[in-house]
Amino acid sequence: MLNVTKYRLAVVGLLWAFVFPAAIASGQEEARGPLQPSDTSSPAATLNSLIDSCNELQKLIEVGAMSEDREGEILPTAERILDCLDLSELPKELRMTAGIESALFLKEVLDRIELPADEEIPKPVDPESADESPPLLHWQIPRTRILIAQVKEGSRQNAFLFTPETVREASQFYRIVKGLPYRIDGRPVSQGLYDTYLAATKKIPSYTAETSSPRGTMTLFLDSCNELNEEIGKDRYLARSHPDFQRLGNQIISCLDTSKLPDFSREYFDAEAAVCLKEVLDRIPLPTAEEIPGIGSVEASDGSEALTRWQVPRTQIVISKMDEGPRRGEFLFSFETVSRAPEFYRKVASQPYRKEGRPVSEGFYDWWLSRPGNPVVAKWVDQLPNWFQDRYFGMAIWQWISLLLAAPGGLVLMMIAFRLDRTRDEQMRGRTLVWHWLTLVFPVIAVLIPLGFKHFVWEYLSLRGSAV
Q: Are residues 317 and 191 in the same domain?
């Protein structure tokens, strides 16, 4: 009986030591409202708030919360992450993109270095205490350049936040420590958080940095091209009227400066420039995302000049800042780059695709040149032998055969229309003016046939490039 009593007491002790505290902590976490801000009352509180919120973000991404229909689940955590940063030098419209990106760079750094325990971090001096110690204004993480400072004025006055300089240099800090292993003790880490977040943001366009910096433009362009290539590969074609094609196509073209292209040929030339640029970028070594200037490098600071252009290393491909027009302030592939994209592609077309680094879109240019955009034509082409895809003088064999059949057909239709016009005109002589005017329908049809032929070869035969 005594042994049973001791056993029960031991079980109760274990429950009291482990289960009850966990339940209480869980209840406290659940009690936190979606609008509750992060604790930034001290350097230790700010450090822990950023770490805990980033870990929470990774868990949400893992359960699929990073999607447009569940965006509300991400927002409270994202706001708590931003609460820890001094974003006073960042435009408000870039908080959710460049701000979060800087926070994740910082988290990747913090997960790789040794951090002091809470009791080792200085605490603010209570103004009502008798302690005459000088007030705590800032704290620097030991053996780093990462600084948390007290805000002196504004809506965040007296809060301890990661300084604007730290936010601006976060990507550089990440580049320095990226090769180090993750910490195995101390505060929890979130391995691969930045890469996981980057992949997940494709589902929520509002979280993508877009064209506010060279890094955003390059990321948007490459990711959109790769996603389009994946969609094409599913059914071996993608109708150009499909919503996914329209969305991804617009995202790709939005990265290019097409302001000087003539309106009548813009749709053709911007598409050719985009696929040629992607083929070039897929064949050369590209810097990692953090090596490309982000929003922190764009804004002028400490008297330095603001960034206005960035050139892909060892190439003539330039991303420059628009100085005028409706897209003023955005970073786009320059007009010179866009106009010379086919030339750049011809120079590297014989080189193999890159084997490491960012994903590539193999055969992207060939698809643009020869893959049908119509499901019926695509199914018919897939049933042909492979040698029908061989290209000669800028077109595939199946395109040559289709063109040689379609061109005479169009000429025959025009001849029939003119012949009917002449015949009907002779029959209508002597009748009322109304009947005579009705004969004009045949010349109009004859004039419209070339336009219909152009639509046919563009949408169904997919004639592109030098063949056009």
A: no
